[in-house]
# Entry
Amino acid sequence: MRLRQATLTTFRDLGVTPEIADALETEGITTPFPIQEMALPLALSGQDLIGQARTGTGKTLAFGIPMLQGIGKPRKNRKKPRGLVVVPTRELAVQVSEDLVTAAGKLGSRVLTVYGGRAYEPQIEALKAGVDVIVGTPGRLLDLVKQKHLDLSQITSLVLDEADRMLDLGFLPDIERIFKLVPAERQTMLFSATMPGEIVGLSRKYLNRPTRVRTDVEEGDGDTPPQTRQIVWRAHRMDKIEIVARLLQADGRGLTMVFCETKRACDMVSEQLDTRGFAVAAVHGDLGQGQREQALRAFRHGKIDVLVATDVAARGIDVDDVTHVVNYDCPADDKAYVHRIGRTGRAGRTGIAVTFVEWEELTRWKMINQTLGLDFPDPVETYSTSPHVFTELSIPEGTKGVLPRANRSRAGLSAEQVEDLGETGRPRVRSGVRGGQRRDEREERERPARTPRQRRRTRGGKPADEAVLVETPEVELVNGRSRDQEETPAIISTNEVETVAAEPRRRTRRTAPAQAAPVIDSVEPVVARAPMTEPTAEPKPIMEATPVTETATEQAPVQAPSFLSTPEPPAPKEPERIIPASPFSVIFQSPDLATDDDDIAPSAATERKQQRRQPRGGAPGGRDGGNRRRMG
# Structure
């Protein structure tokens, strides 16, 4: 059933209460959209409704006003909500909640938004305080019901927004569970941009004689926004980013949304555009909820003018100033194409939608073109240097793929703070602009101070700082070396020699030096390295040491210490030469040769003969002897 009514001027003429109408007029909303004109009279009367209209045509107020007006003024006991709106994505939940809060500004109704990615505690506290309307995603709603924090037994108005998208995301079992939790006597409204067969079957099962409202004049018209100029090009994968960079410098360009098929493609495109100087951010499912909301706030406030997103994020972004939409990847089907280009040309404004089709995507695009009845069966082959790119998009001649520094006036994503949503787990941080913060801008954690090591150097079993060094006359090596060389001569102290001689010294393995060091009185000294001192003209003082027999001038010749010198290997033992009496015979006798006094070892035959004499069996002469065995 399709109804069409005469155009009415204000919300008051449609039966809206003065409180809601005044709140809308305060925000500058005075004239209803076509979907609102057709849906409000039916919804205000309490009928079940199926609304089908394009995105951006005011569907939120079409079901929000009847819900708020049916609930009426707030009650004292708000423990159980009376209005429920189910949406597929977090972004759409936030957008719907903002519109409902705007409409209920003078009613005093409480609207709560619940969705995944945020902490449970604030949502549970809000439910305990009491709410009138709940807007949320199916997963978080069922979690709160399972934890017995949410009671849906008094719901009087139930709304399914973007029902086709919830079907695509696999929320159909969750939606059926929610229908079983709410009372049977209720008003149910279902809104969707497209109406697949599963949604029709769902409406027949859970809606009571619904009325279908469609704002299009003909069945085939209105699938795509008429205010949006559509451009379809066949482009190469490696050249698409260059075309987008030139498109973003077109005359009159405002906010722009770029849609990609995968999350990885979103990250790649956002990084490439950020490198080229554009204020850009990415929104997809791998980012935390705080980062996604940060990017959307920055986009709405104009701190960034390019938003790269997936199809899931496209459903919840409601920004009226989007002038360009770029389908970086070909949409999966006609529904995705309609929802993508529906981000521009909203609220009666005009927009431009550019779609890139690669060679392997031509078959998919021809199906979309045939289903929607478009006029692009064979897209034009396009490159970044093609002349029609500059003419059709109003791009100045000579524009390159890098934004000039003089035109970089946006504050960027870093200017928008990340709201603390109480997310559990570690935040998802990505390189580039994906995480909302660059790697070089992150604060480095202060490393704790290291604990000082408890080590002390010892010398001869005593701490090195307690050792008293006594200077003695230095003995320097003069064997081919001068004082200007890098190596310093060894300094030997007499006190150190006595200390080492009195106390045991720890043995360490040391390599033998190339040249020998001096030795005093053939006692094993300790060679200690002393700091280099500048030679002076004054004579060095001579300290009195332990009684020494020789004076300093009559010292023994310097020899290398025994521990530094390598002992000579023992000489091989040569046989002794015996000179006989006769000069004609020479006899060599080794010290290891046998002499006449040595015992002669028995031969093998003698040993075998002795073994045969012994009996084989038991004791000799016994009954079990070998001879008796033979005889028996």
User: Anything to note?
Assistant: Residues 136 and 256 are 27 Å apart (CA to CA).
